[in-house]
């Protein structure tokens, strides 16, 4: 049973890496080679000051490139992306519009752990509805992400 679980996890990770490398990410930019592996994040990390029951958090910052529309990006999330994120097991924590940078959108997602994150993004990237929406509502973006685990003294785990 344990061997089957390990093999299933390996297949999911390999599949996630393949899909992430071959599909455009949510920002609509084509991948430039294989996506780097998601760093270990979430529960039971051997890091000082990290909660043992933390989820894996991903802070994503989208900067709209010149000639693209921040309003179109907001519409895409409002009307399509958020529902698809939920469909694929991603937990939406929050979305922010920086006051001093109106061409940016910042949002925070949570997952059980790094493997769950990779599986969710692989399923999302392959979803036919997302592929259609990404094409019909294309926005050129710079995408930056940061992976985090919660501290043992913070309120959000």
Would you summarize the structure shown here?
This protein has 157 residues and is α+β, with helices and mostly antiparallel strands. Helices cover 39% and strands 20% of the residues. The chain has one domain (2-149): Alpha-Beta Plaits, CATH 3.30.70.100.
Description of the molecule:
This protein has one domain (2-149): Alpha-Beta Plaits (2-Layer Sandwich), CATH 3.30.70. With 157 residues, it is an alpha+beta fold. Helix content is 39%, strand content 20%. It has helices spanning 2-22, 70-87, 114-126, 128-136, and strands at residues 56-64, 91-96, 104-111, 141-149. It has a four-stranded antiparallel β-sheet. Helix 2 (70-87) runs antiparallel to helix 4 (128-136).
């Amino acid at each position: 049973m344990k061997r089957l679980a390990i093999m299933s996890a390996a297949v999911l990770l390999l599949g996630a890496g393949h899909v992430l490398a071959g599909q455009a990410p949510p920002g609509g930019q084509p991948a430039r080679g294989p996506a780097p592996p998601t760093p270990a994040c979430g529960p039971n990390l051997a890091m000082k000051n990290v909660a043992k029951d933390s989820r894996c958090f991903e802070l994503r910052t989208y900067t709209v490139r010149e000639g693209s529309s921040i309003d179109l990006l907001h519409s895409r999330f409002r009307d399509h992306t958020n529902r698809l994120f939920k469909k694929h097991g991603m937990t939406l924590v929050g979305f922010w519009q920086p006051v001093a940078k109106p061409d940016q959108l910042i949002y925070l997602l949570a997952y059980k752990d790094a493997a769950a994150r990779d599986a969710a993004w692989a399923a999302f990237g392959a979803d036919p509805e997302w592929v259609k929406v990404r094409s019909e509502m294309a926005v050129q973006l710079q995408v930056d992400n940061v992976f985090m685990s919660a501290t043992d003294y913070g309120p959000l785990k």
